[in-house]
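Morning, I've got a small favour to ask if you have a moment. I owe you a coffee for this, so here goes:
>
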Amino acid sequence: MNKNQTPSERVPPGQYLVEKWPVLSYGPTPRFNPATWDFRLFGAVEQSVRLSYQQFRALPQTQLTTDFHCVTTWSRLDNRWEGVLVKDVLALVRLKAEARHVMLHCDGGYTTNLSLEHFLDSDVIFAHRHDGQDLEPDHGWPLRLVVPKLYAWKSAKWLRGVEFLTEHKRGFWEVRGYHTRGNPWTEERYSDQEDDET
């Protein structure tokens, strides 16, 4: 988000602005139990890590404001997120040199993939609050990843773990025809738009 841009300049091609935050999900909203909830970092790491809900919430907290763009063509500007930056979570593990991608694993079996480069971007956050309130269950409570520079299906709800990969794999929507990267500024919506460098 560039603060020198006008609101219209912050809206990618093919998008329209909304004030409310629409709910879009695949499957039912999971039930949250703080006593059994955990979060895992695993795959191409030297040693896997599992955190309880209390341990995750004890990590350093950050607030940031970003725009949010859904592949279904709506955008919402100036969302205030609170949570844990990716860099503060990654301080808990040592990545193997060959780690190149991540797969996000969520309650309900949902997955989505990211390049390690996009995952490590400075504005990517594990969020538990939005606009001054705890996330609503339908919006991902107790935890969702927010990846502002990509379409919102990459901002996975009900997140339970990050798997570090040495090779690219497609997640839930990506195997069903959605773009593996999902850049809203170049309208990367569908897999038939991919090039060899995707």
Q: What stands out?
A: The chain has one domain: 37-193. The chain has a mean pLDDT of 93. The helical segments are 53-57, 86-90, 116-119. The chain is about 5% helix and 30% strand.
